[in-house]
Specification:
The chain is mostly helical. It has twelve helices and three strands. Helices cover 55% and strands 3% of the residues. The longest helix has 24 residues.
Length: 287
Amino acid sequence: MAADAGDWLHTRSEGGPRSRPRDEHTVRMNLNRVHPLLLKWAGDYIHLREVTTADVIAATELLSGSRRRQTLTALRSLSGHCNKTGRIFRDPASGVHDGQRPLILIQPLQAAEIDQATAAAVTPAARLAVALAAVHAARPKTIRELHLGDVDPGNRRLVITGRARPLDDLTRRLLLAWLQHRGRRWPGTANPHLIVNQQTAMTTRAVSENWLTETCRGLTATLERLRADRQLEEALTRGADPLHLAAVSGIDDTTAIKYATIARQLLETTAEHHAAGPREPKGQNSP
């Protein structure tokens, strides 16, 4: 059982003939979710092929919300890998459903929350990362993987997730400040990534997610939250059109529909609130 799990984790981390390598955080979370179940099953079974659908249901039925979804996702990945490689003969997790994920109605960030994030970004790299998330809706992973060839401050263009877009004045100013700092601090680095640090300047690796997101950690306006707020703002100001969101932000259809739905509900709630008008205060003699 341990050998099967080890082969699965290696493929998740390094990739395989028909699978791409996953992010380190994803692989670690997959392991954390299945590890306690594997320990339990190892006390009853010798091989993963002995695990049944009933075992999977029993192990996950007491979990709820994202914990259950993440656990089932990891189990499906493990059993699917073992099935493809001939280690098991049927997938015990394939028939277990985690239910429909509820739509979380994201609220726009408050100005004070955004101010906290900008105040916390005291280094050139942190300021640029905040701008890329808040202005261009770039994910932290996307920011980490940006290359020097993706930015062209002279022609005021940058490329994010394969899409060229205009470079606004704020981001351009912060980009130039970072490039100047980068050139002074690591003039001989061969790292092709736009953002580097002391550890990665001597390699060709991207900076870690923990390092990039450390500035806004613990704040309401994290880099991921700033990115989501920018997409929500686009949906609220330009109309809740998923096609427009997908074209502008480079997000997939499902995500675009989600943000359009959230924006539509927020707009409808605001309209209903204004239509109702302010309530008259009750007087002392009111029933």
